[in-house]
Design a protein that fits this description.
Strand order of the largest sheet: 7-6-8-9-11-10-15
CATH superfamily of the largest domain: Thiamin diphosphate (ThDP)-binding fold, Pyr/PP domains
Radius of gyration: 28 Å
CATH architecture of the largest domain: 3-Layer(aba) Sandwich
Number of helices: 27
CATH class of the largest domain: Alpha Beta
Strand content: 5-15%
Number of strands: 17
Shape: globular
Largest sheet: 7 strands, mixed
Structural class: alpha/beta
Distance between the termini: 80 Å
Length: 637
């Protein structure tokens, strides 16, 4: 008689409590099944695959050893959280990842009690974990708090600020350094695992605590000498002097794909640690899926793909992407000007600076996940006569706002800010939307703020920025492909603060800032058909505003609608301020500013997000009809 097929272990695990009922020997099988489930899910949705594949064993081990959700696990950035989501009650929804009304691609507090802290930006986990560890201490309860941070995220300065603070507080916090590029130190086989287990056990930890008590009695000078001796002895054995100097017990490196290594160390730390501990775990990004292991980026972010071949679905582009247009335009300007340099913060491919770097390797700088440093580094270059183009996503430029103000704007240094991913970005949701850059930059004295309406305008703005030396200047552009306009051989130098009229009308004026211009032109067709002669203008600049253009639009039209893919307080707010100052808000003119709604909008396709916001063709037409009110109703009747 044939034996009945076994129920897959993953089918028995709906929540971590189910996982903790399984035997340690069953963990490798569970890991294999979890990888298959994740690969199949992401093949249908797209998303961040490589990082999750690399932490399958680590994720299982964490939920096996720790009492989640009471114990807290915080994943830095969140790219690696898909296995965690499957194990924490969300397996049935995992194929809705990054879809409208589906699961977020990152950890999200509102989604699950197993997500104690939301993420998506880098280097935040240790700070958040320290806050939770201190909260537990203030409450008088013993709770394990674990921050899982990658070696790339550890390049962010905030991570070191948190490590320093955690060490000085002697907080009971566990930091797991997920080294998936062997960028610090490789494991050394069974001996390394043995030493790591030994160092995490009661004997060593007890010895160090005894040393602390003894030296506290003998005096601070002796304490420092003996403690340093212990730390440096540890450094010789297993490495980790840097972390030990910051006040952490350092354990590892250990093999992050071996349950024989992970489970004993995690249990030792759980049961014996009283202060901050850092466990160095080496993993392989893309582990267990051959196409990911072979890919240069280890399938960090993928479109939908064929599971058998690994081939990713690719849309047929009708036009070059804005990012590639920027890269090509910057290369062109750099060929004419040896002072032009490019700076990015760990996103050379995403910003197009990888192409620039291939041609100008000595003039291209990837500073790692360090946006604050990137901006002040650019300021230093500008101060000595160079022309830095700092290429960052809008959402990441937020992290360096103080540096933009203090180190660039106040000193009127000509740093050029190329702001990619402006506006809605779709599947990555609110954490990556480029919502606020116009608002926070246009408030700064002397800042020139531009937005490209199409690919040709982007080329003009790159050249304009290259030629502008009177202070800081920025230009924003969205993710994805352009609208398909003809590109000039080389961009033109635009007159600072001057917009353009694209279509002339007499009753309604649509004033666009950025790539909503194409929807304004389509809306104008509908309005003309309804008997409403419509002017369409491209502002080009939010600062300085083209006041003459605004005066003309206000004086010669009955309705003025501003349109921008940005938050309240941006371009439209500056136009309203100008109208009020000029005395043009006299009751005759009907003004409607169209902006992103005052919410954090969850993931969906960008076109659906713009439709919800009323920033598409239909929304613009509706805004005009609403402004005209009774008159429009009578006309339509």
């Amino acid at each position: 008689m044939n034996a009945l097929p076994q129920t897959p272990l993953l089918d028995k695990v709906s929540f971590p409590a189910d996982l903790r009922k399984l035997d340690d020997k069953e963990m490798p099988q569970l890991a294999a099944e979890l990888r298959v489930e994740m690969i199949d899910a992401v093949s249908k949705t797209g998303g961040h695959l490589g990082a999750g594949l690399g932490v399958v064993e680590l994720t299982i081990a964490l939920h096996k050893v720790f009492d989640t959700p009471d114990d807290r696990i915080i994943f830095d950035v969140g790219h690696q959280c898909y296995p965690h989501k499957i194990l924490t009650g969300r397996r049935e929804r995992i194929r809705t990842l990054r879809q409208k009304n589906g699961l977020s691609g990152f950890t999200k507090r509102a989604e699950s009690e197993y997500d104690p802290f939301g993420a998506a930006h880098s280097s935040t986990s240790i700070s958040a974990g320290l806050g939770m560890a201190v909260a537990a201490d203030l409450d008088g309860r013993r709770r394990n708090v674990i921050a899982v941070i990658g070696d790339g995220a550890l390049s962010g300065g905030m991570a070191f600020e948190a490590l320093n603070n955690a060490g000085s507080l002697d907080a009971r916090l566990i930091v797991i350094l997920n080294d998936n590029d062997m960028s610090i130190a490789p494991p050394t086989g069974a001996m390394s695992a043995y030493l790591a287990r030994l160092a995490s056990g009661r004997t060593y930890l007890g010895f160090r605590e005894l040393g602390k008590k003894l030296t506290a009695y003998l005096g601070k000078k002796v304490d420092r000498a003996i403690t340093r001796a212990v730390e440096h002895a540890r450094g010789y054995v297993t490495g980790g002097t840097l972390f030990e100097e910051l006040g952490f017990y350092h354990i590892g490196p250990i093999d992050g794909h071996s349950f024989d290594h992970l489970l004993p160390v995690l249990r030792n730390v759980r049961d014996n640690s009283t202060g901050p501990v850092l466990i160095h775990v080496v993993t392989q990004k893309g582990k267990g899926y051959a196409p990911a292991e072979a890919a240069a980026d280890k399938y960090h972010g993928v479109n939908k793909f064929d599971v058998i071949t690994g081939a990713q679905a690719k849309a047929k582009p009708n036009a070059p992407s804005y990012t590639s247009v920027f890269a090509d335009a910057l290369i062109q300007e750099a060929e004419h000007d040896s002072k032009i340099v490019g700076i990015t913060a760990a996103m050379p491919t995403g910003t197009g600076l990888d192409k620039f770097g291939e041609l100008f390797p000595k003039r291209c700088f990837d500073v790692g996940i360090a946006e604050q440093h990137a901006v002040t580094f650019a300021a230093g270059l500008a101060a000595d006569g160079y022309k830095p183009f700092t290429a960052l996503y809008s959402t990441f430029l937020q992290r360096a706002y103080d540096q933009v103000v203090h180190d660039v704007s106040i000193q009127s240094l000509p740093v050029r800010f190329a702001i990619d991913r402006a506006g809605y970005v779709g599947a990555d949701g609110p954490t990556h939307a480029g919502s606020f850059d116009t608002t926070f930059l246009a408030t700064l004295p002397g800042m020139v703020v531009m937005a490209a309406a199409d690919e040709a305008e982007l080329k003009h703005m790159v050249r304009t920025a290259a030629a502008y030396d009177d202070g800081p200047i920025s230009f924003r552009y969205p993710r994805g492909e352009g609208v398909g306009v003809d590109l000039p051989e080389r961009g033109e130098i635009l007159q600072i603060g001057k917009g353009r009229v694209v279509k002339q009308g007499s009753k309604v004026a649509l004033l666009s800032f950025g790539t909503r211009l194409s929807d304004c032109l389509m809306a104008a067709e509908d309005l003309d058909a309804a008997g409403l002669s419509t002017t369409v203008a491209d502002a080009r600049f939010a600062k300085p505003l083209d006041l003459e253009l605004i005066r003309q639009l206000a004086r010669h039209h009955e309705v003025l609608v501003t349109v921008e893919e940005g938050a309240i307080g941006g371009f439209g707010a500056h136009v309203l301020h100008a109208l009020a100052t000029e005395g043009l808000l006299d009751g005759r003119l009907k003004v409607r500013p169209l902006v992103m709604p005052d919410i954090y909008m969850d993931q969906a396709k960008p076109e659906a997000m713009n439709a919800y916001a009323g920033l598409d063709r239909k929304g613009i037409v509706s805004a005009v009809f609403s402004a005209l009110g009774r008159e429009m109703a009578e006309r339509l009747a």
